[in-house]
Structure prediction request, 239 residues.
Amino acid sequence: MLSRLRQGVTALLSAAAAWRLFKPAVFLACLAPGVWLGVRAWRFFRGGDFLALGPDPAKTLLHETGENALVILFITLSVTPVRRLFQVNRLQAVRRMLGVWAFTYALSHVSVYLVFDQLCYSVATCEFNAIKEDILKRRFIFAGMTAFSILLPLAITSTSGWVRRLKKNWQRLHRLVYVAAGAAVVHYTWIQKSDIRVPLRYAAVLLLLLGIRVVFAWQKRRPVPYGRRRRPPGAGGRP
Prediction:
């Protein structure tokens, strides 16, 4: 039963990853929430529809951009475990794009905070001292800014050119994405006033993804039994 289910999931993932429109479809799927939020914001600010963003427009913009960033970030973290579990290597082709989209929504989230909470319409109006106090005194903002500060260099170094420049250090640097995800979950948890069930679900998924990664790392480093080692080409006789 489980074997058939795994084969079915593998076949489905393989077909999706082999589809010639796979990358454009993933791109559009990531773009769609932002477009829908942008349409509603346009209706609110220009169309006179004062209920398009709910009773608190700034809160709606903050919540939805943050939620989108977190969801896409977790999908990004899921690509490698899913690829390894089901051996569908083509899924890796969209991982960096997903990471950039997660950063894009995180940047939108931070921008909404700066514009609506700290009046950063320009350098002259921006409340820099208030931002500093927020980061130092409000723990959920400190956690959120920590996550964003980690995602920023990861987004900058996401290009093929940076992969070539950094070589092995690129992989080491991008492992910090798990720290960013943890900080984002803490940010989400601390911002809640009472009900923390949703952020706890994100925390559980993050622990699961980390656990899968640890298992794969352990399997990779585990010594191969002597009888299973491959002989060099042309080797003969008894071991």
